[in-house]
Amino acid sequence: MFAGVTFALSLPSVAHAAEHDEDVLPPPTDDAADPDEPGFPQDKAAPTAYAPPTSGVVISAGPAPLPAPVPDHPPLADWRLIGWLGGFAQLDGSKYGGIENGVAFQYRYRWFVGGPLVAASAEPLSASSYTVAATAGVGTRLGKQVRAQVLGVFGAHFHQNVGYELLGNDNGADGTVPFAGARASMGYLFGKRFAHFELGAFVELDDDLTRRHITYEVDGASVTHVVGTSTVAFGIELGGSHDVF
Question: Is the pTM of the predicted complex or chain greater than 0.85?
């Protein structure tokens, strides 16, 4: 009985809605609520635009700068400080030999090479010689890693104790003579950038331009020694160099 009454009372409401074609809308949800209305949940506030920090260090996300490029062609100019150790042999005179060492500074611009040179050589338990000279000639870099050059050498030899006898009273003769020679060398340059370590070999031919005959007495006897000779030297070079441009 009560169910039938309820059904009868509800029919006009449905009919009335159909007659006036009214839309029945669902109740509003929390997602559609206006954030300005009172009671709007604070945990569902509308998102705000991103604002970058106004203080602190800004770190760039760009790529790191690349190192300066290294030219793939030989430099037009460079300098090097080189030392050497080797041996020598006399081509006349006593025809003995010994050891030699020295150091040279050289500057190259295009094909021209020049610089000073000092050296010392000695025969075992006998004569010795010191050299001061200037060098000038031609040289080149074969690629970036190989050096080749041929130089003229001009200077003076300071000979000491020429003709010295270990078991005698003859201390030998001293004298200074000018000389001229030629020096050829080739070496490899380690290092791809501007500074290099060099390792190579050389051969040098020298000739004293004069022969000095020095005479003196030893134990009442006259002794004459000849100061001046021709020599050939050879050995290894090692040192450093730096490309200029």
Answer: no
